[in-house]
């Protein structure tokens, strides 16, 4: 095709020319929303503590004076409201859906705040799930958030892709555990971030050790984690390690995650503050 006959419809064109535009899948935010930074929290697989890290980061930033919100994009396994002990359903007005707020002031939206019976499983196909995530951005009134954390479902499937294409994500934080094949996960995340043009802010290792209740010694249950080494290899900031802690588990179960205060995530909160 010559330059003169170009229709500028890059979506249907086979030509790989220099000026090819990437299709724009971005979704507009609710007109009443004002969100300064959108942070995606990702993991390679389920159960590594992604929702826990999302909750801890939002709580820590909220305590440091930033207004925070959490968009629970883990539609089939939503756990954010439970960790904060939020049970009241979200409401809506003619302008959109109003997020619920935790005791400490963290705003949140989740499928669990829209359905009466929390035990009802969400049995939807990928596109329907992705559609809900987009609505959590376009229909929810995030009236003011310094930081909106997006708790992603694990992996690189439909929903993470939808979030990266539809929301203006400013950076992602990777959560791993010491048992994982960290280097493979980091490499995948790096490639995805590059493809989507989104910076990786850093990596956090969860369940790194347990602390002996008698002598305080750190016991590395899963051996020496490779996370900090891998982070250094790929030039990514290692933002901290979180122990496997019965206290933390009990706070999650009781819906009191906000009352956890330990300096594990200081480096991560400093990194987030540097984005302002
Ligand atoms: N460091 C920790 N200490 C104690 N309990 C933990 C810790 N990390 C996670 N847990 C517990 O493990 C469970 C799974 O954590 P979480 O829901 O954060 O994982 P996830 O990666 O978001 O899982 P999924 O992706 O499957 O939703 C939670 O019940 C949480 O209380």
TrEMBL record:
InterPro entries: Mrp/NBP35_ATP-bd (IPR019591), NUBPL-like (IPR044304), P-loop_NTPase (IPR027417), YlxH/NBP35 (IPR033756)
Domain of life: Bacteria
Signal peptide (UniProt feature, chain positions): none
Keywords: ATP-binding, Hydrolase, Iron, Iron-sulfur, Metal-binding, Nucleotide-binding
Residues holding ATP: 44-51
Single GO MF descriptor: ATP hydrolysis activity
Positions in coiled-coil regions: none
Any one Gene Ontology BP term: iron-sulfur cluster assembly
The keyword Cytoplasm belongs to this UniProt entry's keyword annotation: no
SUPFAM superfamilies in UniProt: P-loop containing nucleoside triphosphate hydrolases
Gene3D superfamilies: P-loop containing nucleotide triphosphate hydrolases
Family, as annotated: Belongs to the Mrp/NBP35 ATP-binding proteins family.
Subunit structure, interactors included: Homodimer.
Protein's job: Binds and transfers iron-sulfur (Fe-S) clusters to target apoproteins. Can hydrolyze ATP.
Name listed for the protein in its UniProt record: Iron-sulfur cluster carrier protein
